[in-house]
Design brief:
The protein is mainly α. The chain is built from 3 helices and no strands. It is elongated and about 85 Å long.
């Protein structure tokens, strides 16, 4: 926006409009990139991998064991419920 102390000539106003237009175009491009399905999927995959692999590429055994324990516990629960219901 123009200051009250600055003289607002047509050239100055036109430069302000062009600068605002350029900033708006950059913002729209960034939002389109962030909302892109490919970008969302790659971001989610990266966050999922970060749970099981550290930045150096080494496996995080503590998180892997927790996940495996959860899956094993769920399978055991399903087997017990099926046996009790039959």
């Amino acid at each position: 926006m123009a200051d009250a102390t600055r003289k607002a000539g047509p050239d100055s106003i036109e430069r302000d409009i062009e600068a605002t237009r350029a900033r708006l175009a950059g913002t729209i491009d960034e939002l389109a990139y962030r909302a892109s399905p490919k970008t969302i999927v790659s971001r989610e995959i990266a966050s999922f991998k970060a749970v099981f692999v550290d930045p150096q590429g080494n496996p995080r055994t503590d998180n892997i064991l927790k996940a495996a324990g959860g899956v094993l516990g769920f399978v055991a629960f399903v087997v017990v419920v099926r046996r009790l219901s039959s």
